[in-house]
Amino acid sequence: MSLAPRAVLVHRRTEYEELLARHGTHGQAAFFLSSRGRSIDEVVGRHDRTRQALRDVAAAVPLTWRSSRVERADLDRFLFAPEDVVVVVGQDGLVANTAKYLRGQPVVGIDTDPGRNPGVLVRHRCADAGRLLRAATAAGGRAEELTMVEAVADDAQRLLALNEIYLGPPGHQTARYRLGPDGERGPGEAQASSGVLVGTGTGATGWLRSLWLERGSTTGLPAPCEERLLWFVREAWPSPATGTSRVTGELGRGQGLRLTVESDRIVVFGDGMESDALELTWGQSVRLGIAGTSLRLVT
């Protein structure tokens, strides 16, 4: 007998909860904000809307289903199951933060603050939660398969991301490495830069687009469901020992970009989650390419 679906509600601490954790009481938090020209009322209002949204979504879970909740800070310790339907209640970025821990489970994005969030990934309102949960498990339910990017190190460490993966120095130093197509004979071009960014179509509205505009690239940005990635080297430095001939490109399905570390330490993280990063040292290599899994976003 198969298990009933489980609705997993993903959320993050509100700004108000973070203020209370830092200052201890509502009054102290209000004083802190007022000293900086802000009112705590707007912060409490957003907190109340978020908590109400969580209650509304929890109430919409079918009675025969199981349910669970997980906070963003605990995602790396939460075990998602194949039968889960993941409901992200919050901002677009929270969907990206969650995506790297999933393996094909359907995701429903619920916007807790319409008009304030762009709503690119959290496209729905609380009132739609019940219908979307049922649709997520129904045959023929509509969903978009959003392309993801992965980094696989030579020691089998693996990292997934929905928007982009960044490889670079942990601070403001220069990263040194060799870069070239995966499978190419030879060590690749020696480079010194502030890092490499490999992004998807979903990430084409953020950091990837900034680099694309800065370079005046003639390569079109990928669409979210398109199996194509763009990559850019940030601030490559030309010198007698390092080159700048490979600073941008695109990757299709089956193609890869290989980076071999030639400095003490390089970090690899996805979608801004620096707390969950890979660390590579001298001589290690990592391959970047389209991930074998995608984010199944219920529409």
Automatic annotation (TrEMBL):
Superkingdom of this protein's organism: Bacteria
PANTHER family: NAD KINASE 2, MITOCHONDRIAL, PTHR13158
Name of the protein in question: Inorganic polyphosphate kinase
Organism: Streptomyces virginiae (Streptomyces cinnamonensis)
